[in-house]
Specification:
single chain; 87 residues; mainly alpha; 4 helices; flat
Amino acid sequence: FHTTFMYVLLYGAYQKAVTGSIAVLGLVYPLVATIVDFIAYGKLMNLQQIFGGALILLAASMYATGFGARKTAKTVRTVDVAEKQES
C-alpha cells in the first residue's frame, strides 16, 4: 500500500513541478525510502548508504540555492524585461 501511495504522490507532484524539480524528486526518493525503512523496520544504513544520502542532500541543496547555475542570455533578458515592466 505504501508504495502505491508514494507513487500517487510522486507522479502527482510531477504534473505540477518544473523539470529541474522533477530531477531532484527522483534523486531524493531513494533516500526517503531508506529513511522510512529505518523508521518502520529499524534497518540501519551502511556507510555507503549514509555517504550516498549525504551526496543526495548536498546536490538537492545546491539545486535549491541555485549554486553553480549559469545564467543564459535568455534568462537574463527575461529578468530584464520583467524588471522593466514593473517600473
